[in-house]
Each structure stands twice: as C-alpha cells, then as structure tokens.
Amino acid sequence: MAAPLPREVDIVVIGAGAAGIAAARRIAAAGRSVVVIEAAPRIGGRCRTDPALFGVPFDRGAHALYNPDGNPLVKLARGNGFDIAPATASQKIRIGRRNARAGEAEDFLTALVRANRAIDEAARGKADVACAAALPNDLGDWAATVDFVLGPSVTGKELRDLSAMDRARMQERGAAIVCRQGLGALLTRLGGGIPISLGTPATRVAWSNRDVAVDTPAGKIVARAAIVTVSTHVLASGRIAFAPDLPKRQFDAASGLGLGSYDRIALQMDGNPLGLGRDENIIERSKDARTALLVANLGGSSLCTVDVAGKFGADLSAQGEDAMVAFAREWLGGLFGSDAVAKIERSLATRWNADALIGGAMSAATPGAEGGRRLLGEPFGNVFIAGEATHETLYGTVEGAWASGEHAADAALKKIGPAKPPPPQKKPRAKKRHAH
Ligand SMILES: Cc1cc2nc3c(=O)[nH]c(=O)nc-3n(C[C@H](O)[C@H](O)[C@H](O)COP(=O)(O)OP(=O)(O)OC[C@H]3O[C@@H](n4cnc5c(N)ncnc54)[C@H](O)[C@@H]3O)c2cc1C
Questions:
Q1: Once rounded to an integer, what is the mean pLDDT over residues 87-97?
Q2: Which residue has the least CA distance to atom 26 on ligand 1?
Q3: C-beta 397 within 6 A of ligand 1
Q4: 345, CA 20 to 30 Å: which among 6, 64, 161, 230?
Q5: How far away, in angstroms, is 436 Cα from ligand 1 center?
Q6: In terms of domains, do 253 and 388 share one?
C-alpha cells in the first residue's frame, strides 16, 4: 500500500525486503502503527520478479523456498493463491561433453561428504578457520567442484574466504519449492496491506533508549523504535548515518558478514536444445573456479539460468552483462555443443553487486567472524537489526530473512510495551431533572 510519510508511528521499519515485510505485518497484527520506508521504487529487495521479459515470470534474485514443512512462506503463498510446486531434485554432473558415469558421480559424492565432515570437525575446534584450511588435500579431480558446490553456489564466497564455524551452522536446505508467479511477486502481495513508502531512503537514524527519529528526503519520522533490515553491505557502507554512531560491535559484525556474489544469466532457448528435464540442475567437473550452475527449463518453461558466483562471478559481473552472456554461451557450448547454444533467443544477466541498495547476494562470514550474526542482531537503544544476515542457521535465505523480521518485531513490541489505553471518555453528565 503506497503511503504518504506519517510524522509519527509506533515503529518504523527500514527496507521492504522479506525481513521488513515480515516485521511490519507482525507489528500491524499487534495493533500498533507502523510504516515501512523503502529506498527502491519497489517492494521485495533481493526477491525481485521480472514478469514480462521472457513470457514467464523470472526471479532475478531468490528463486526457491526450502524446508516446505516449516517454511511460513510456503503456507502464505498457498493461502494467497500462488502456485507452489516442488522443484525436481535431479542434479547431473557433466565431464566435458558427456554425463559423469555412475562411478564418477559416486566419487564426487564421497569427496563432498568428506569435505563437509572435515569442515564440521574444524568447526568444533577452539579457533575459527577458513573452510578451505579444513579440507582433505586428496580431493583430486573433484577439488574445484567441491569448492564451488560448498562455497560459491550457496554462499557466494570461496571456501578460502568462509568461516568454518559459520558454514557448519548453516541448516541443510532440504527440498526446494518454487513459486510459478515468482518470489518477488509473492512479497509484493504480502506487503499489500501495510503502509509502505517507496523511493524513500533512510539517510539518518537518531536513536536513544526512548525513541528514534529517521530522516528521509521526504521528511522526518519519529517512532518509539526502528527495525533496520538493510543488507550488511549497506549497513557497513555508512550510507545511513547513525547518531550516536552505529555501535562498534554491530559495525564490526556487519563488516565480517559482507555479501558474497551470486548472479543469474537467463537464457531463453525454445525447443529444449539441451535435452534436459524440468528444473534439472547441472554442474561440471571443473578444473578451476571458472564454472557455473545450470538450472534448466525453469518450471517447465524454455528458460534456463547459468548461475555464476564467488570471486569468479564477481569479476565477471564487474565486466558487464555482455561479458556474462558471452561466458554463459561459451560454457554451455563446452558442455552441450555449439548447436545447442545457437538456439539462445533472448538473454538477461543480473548484477546484484552493482545494485547500490543491496551490494551483493547473501551474507557470508569471513574466517574469525563467526559470532557476528548474533552480535548484529543485538538491539542498541530502541534500534533492532533484522535481515537474513542476523539468522544464525537460515542466513542467506528468504525464510531466514522472514524469521529475523518477525523476531525483531516481537523484540521491538516488547520494548515499547503495551499500547496506552485510550483516555477514559468522560461520561456525559446526566441532565438534572427538575422536579415539577
Ligand atoms: C541471485 C540471488 C539468488 C538467491 N537465491 C535464493 C533462493 O533461491 N532461496 C532463498 O531462500 N534465498 C535466496 N537468495 C537470498 C535471499 O534473496 C535473501 O536472503 C533475502 O531476500 C534477503 O532479504 P532481507 O529482507 O534480509 O534483505 P533485502 O531483500 O536486501 O531487503 C533490504 C531492503 O532495504 C532497502 N534499502 C537499502 N538501503 C535503504 C535505505 N537507506 N532506506 C530504506 N531502504 C533501504 C533495499 O532496497 C531492500 O529492499 C538469493 C539471493 C540472490 C541475490
């Protein structure tokens, strides 16, 4: 609901991504006044659906929901009439122009299990180390693929740049669920009933233990509390001034939880020239980090994405969309032949690192920064930080962002206390009756 900026509310929420929408719904449900201020001209943040370009909705950001049994967004999607379906779990490994043989796929899985165990074991040590330092050094031909699968493809960062303790805490993602209309469209619907002021960046947050004042180009809002849901990149960039300063604990935590890089290169290829199934995932046995994840025939459509991530993905996206599409063509050509690639009719590449309001894909803790998620979520004065980065096990997901928003809303509501009962209404004085 587009809203003029109120001058005063109970709680102001900064950012209308998953965390901000979840927080605002919770506050509104508790009967308190709330406004969400969002710098972008749209709702959704890292959930953004392009409805028209390819004839089918395309999620530029988050695409899958996980943990269908416990994920509240799956229930909300169903309840709001969105089409929800499990994504096919099938994943194949290519070795050059052929599929990996059963024995090779088994070798890869063994390498993956060993690497995962080694990271878990390192995480039980006293000091945090980089995941890469924990890896067995005999992963042979599979070393680069294991790195990609455990690092960039889920966190946006290489294993050498990732905290083992933080990585070991990440909850198994479980079965993936996709939403035909797109997750950006879902968040837009879920934000429908709450007052949201779009194109309204917070520029300064003056805070104390009593109240908060947020400056925006459209005016100042005074509130009893604020929930800040911007990405760790935005928080650490200093683009929002805090007065007093953002406490050092939170600043250091946000800096240690910088965003990894993950982008999607979408290719429309009519006639299924790759000969793959619906939502099928393909990775390759790669020699180095110059690799990608293919997600084919999204939701049964003719749309495929070549996902690039980590340092390689970041360097590629810095070169621009043309270079990204050229890489996707070359990479796919190497795995499926140039005839298949000739069928690409339309393409688009996301560049999340270049989006100043986000600055990357998902938070990933650098070695030594493992405790940062808890610290980041600790309130200061009447300010509560939420967002995917503050969730200790579901970070980097929409579900984690949503849960963090609800959690921050509960904490803020508790802090401001119950609503003051309305002043008692004066009873109208009974008219004196005059005795006759
Ligand atoms: C390419 C990609 C693929 C992904 N895939 C998946 C997936 O398949 N499944 C999954 O679960 N997760 C996935 N994720 C992660 C998921 O998208 C995020 O974890 C989640 O959406 C983050 O939500 P959030 O509310 O924490 O932050 P955001 O969505 O970043 O919301 C923060 C909001 O704050 C706004 N903002 C910034 N500065 C200001 C300011 N000064 N004033 C006001 N507003 C401001 C921003 O515009 C933004 O809307 C993916 C992410 C990317 C980028």
A1: 87
A2: 387
A3: yes
A4: 64
A5: 77
A6: yes
